[in-house]
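User: I'm writing a tutorial on reading structure tokens. Could you give me a worked example: one chain, its sequence, then its tokens, then a sentence or two explaining what the tokens reveal?
Assistant: Sure. Here is the example chain.
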Amino acid sequence: MVEEWIAAVKKDSDPGELGMILIHNGIVRATSKEGQTVGGMYLTYNKEKLDALTDEFGKREGILTVRAWINEGHLTVGDDIMYVLVAGRFRKHVLPALEELVARIKQEVVSEEEYS
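And here are its predicted structure tokens:
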């Protein structure tokens, strides 16, 4: 999926504008943030909120493309949680956009329950 996204962004973008593509790949860890053992998680998300966020970030200065995919359901350690792609002209636009977008997806879009 990620390779296809990158190829599509390169193909569809103006080469004079595209200077950076960043990808975030969230993965289920074996331990929680508090250091406790985790066997997996159950994850759901709100598609409308995700679409609204990707639209919002796609309109930011210096951003050309934003894509996101979230793995819904029962996930085990090592499974992919999400992929997020932000492409744009310069680092000063792309890096902070990716960081903020991932944080907002975690805060506003996904609902997760860890289990051992």
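What the tokens reveal: Helices lie at 2-12, 47-58, 91-109. The mean pLDDT is 95.
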